[in-house]
């Protein structure tokens, strides 16, 4: 089996056309067509239904793509990893992170990675928008419970613990809080998917009450809490410094009994390469160090 022909076949399917695949692979269109014809001849089946205006995969072509795309990506990554042993990575890494992801953690991870691989260029998009990994040319995304395309590769990265927090001054005015129903001013995110996930982290039978102040930025939630505006829903690492300084205190501790999984998402297994996975490992290690400082040595990583 000619692996070059197989790679060309996968490129044609992803590019949705022979001409685009030829441009993307820097090969003459005639060479691309010849490789596909030779592959069909070797397999004894037709892979594409062709017409003068369009083409589509046959059932055999679809099956071959489903089986070959991921396998080729893994094989290519393994070969690249071996060939780059002891060498520096080059090229671009385009990554999207939640808008509130700690900037110092990202900067430290990039700094460490570029010290070893100075030719790598980064573009970091910090947004709560769910970007299309393919259309927006994203190499890797860190997401919290976001929907992903069916072909995306999703791996658990970190577990994040949440809690309710307020200032002592606010609690002196509001009076004691014995349960969720006694919270008069709740501050937190209103994104429906995230709110639903947060409810699943609570003790069984508990549901968060309606928000008094809705803010889809945990940095803003934290600032509102520090301004004595109410009880805020926050990831524990974002509240830890304020707790240590005596500015805020936990409210109803133990109410959140589960942790929220952050996921690293890639367009597909075939799009993985050692450069991307190496940086992902560096980022996870830096974030893990931050969270272990906040919650103790038993903070889980995967």
Give the tags:
single chain, 302 residues, alpha/beta, Arc Repressor Mutant, subunit A, D-Maltodextrin-Binding Protein, domain 2, five-stranded mixed sheet, 12 strands
Radius of gyration: 25 Å
Shape: elongated
The helicity comes to: 40-55%
- CATH homologous superfamily classification of the largest domain: Periplasmic binding protein-like II
Uncertain segments are 294-302
The number of distinct structural domains comes to: 3
Query: Helical element count?
Result: 10
CATH second-level architecture of the largest domain = 3-Layer(aba) Sandwich
Mean pLDDT: 81
| N-to-C CA distance | 37 Å
Strand order of the largest sheet: 4-3-5-12-6
Named CATH topology of the largest domain? D-Maltodextrin-Binding Protein, domain 2
Order of helices and strands: HHHEEHEHEEEEHEHEHEHEEH
Summarize this entry quickly.
By secondary structure, the chain is an alpha/beta fold. The protein contains ten helices and twelve strands. Strand 8, helix 7 and strand 9 form a beta-alpha-beta unit.
Can you describe this structure?
A five-stranded mixed sheet has the order 4-3-5-12-6, with helices on both faces. Strands 9-8-10-7-11 form a five-stranded mixed sheet. Strands 1-2 form a two-stranded antiparallel sheet. β8 (186-188), α7 (192-200) and β9 (213-214) form a beta-alpha-beta unit. It folds into three domains: 3-83, Arc Repressor Mutant, subunit A; 90-159 and 261-295, Periplasmic binding protein-like II (D-Maltodextrin-Binding Protein, domain 2, 3-Layer(aba) Sandwich), CATH 3.40.190; 162-258, Periplasmic binding protein-like II (D-Maltodextrin-Binding Protein, domain 2, 3-Layer(aba) Sandwich), CATH 3.40.190.10. 43% of the residues lie in helices and 20% in strands. It contains ten helices and twelve strands. The chain has 302 residues and is an alpha/beta fold.
């Amino acid at each position: 089996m000619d692996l070059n022909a197989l790679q060309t076949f996968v490129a044609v399917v992803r590019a949705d056309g022979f001409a685009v695949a030829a441009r993307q692979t820097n090969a003459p269109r005639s060479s691309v067509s010849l490789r596909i014809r030779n592959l069909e001849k070797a397999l004894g089946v037709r892979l594409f239904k062709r017409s003068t205006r369009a083409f589509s995969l046959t059932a055999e072509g679809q099956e071959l793509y489903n089986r070959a795309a991921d396998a080729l990506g893994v094989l290519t990554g393994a070969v690249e990893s071996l060939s780059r042993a002891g060498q520096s990575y080059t090229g671009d890494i385009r990554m999207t992170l939640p808008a509130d992801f700690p900037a110092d953690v990202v900067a430290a991870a990039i700094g460490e990675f570029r010290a070893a691989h100075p030719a790598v260029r980064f573009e970091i998009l910090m947004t709560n928008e769910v970007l299309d990994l393919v259309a927006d040319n994203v190499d890797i995304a860190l997401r919290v419970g976001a929907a992903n395309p069916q072909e995306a590769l999703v791996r658990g990265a970190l577990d994040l613990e949440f809690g309710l927090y307020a200032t002592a001054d606010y609690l002196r005015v509001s009076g004691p809080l014995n349960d969720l129903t006694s919270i008069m001013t709740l501050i937190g995110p209103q994104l429906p998917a995230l709110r639903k996930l947060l409810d699943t982290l609570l003790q069984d039978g508990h549901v968060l009450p309606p928000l008094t102040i809705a803010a889809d930025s945990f940095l803003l939630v934290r600032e509102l809490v520090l301004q004595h505006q109410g009880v805020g829903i926050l990831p524990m690492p974002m509240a830890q410094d304020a707790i240590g300084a005596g500015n805020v205190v936990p409210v109803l501790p133990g109410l959140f009994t589960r942790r929220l999984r952050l996921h690293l998402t890639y367009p597909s297994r075939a799009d993985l390469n050692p450069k991307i996975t190496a940086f992902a490992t560096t980022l996870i290690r830096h974030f893990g160090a931050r969270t272990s400082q906040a919650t103790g040595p038993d903070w889980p990583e995967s």
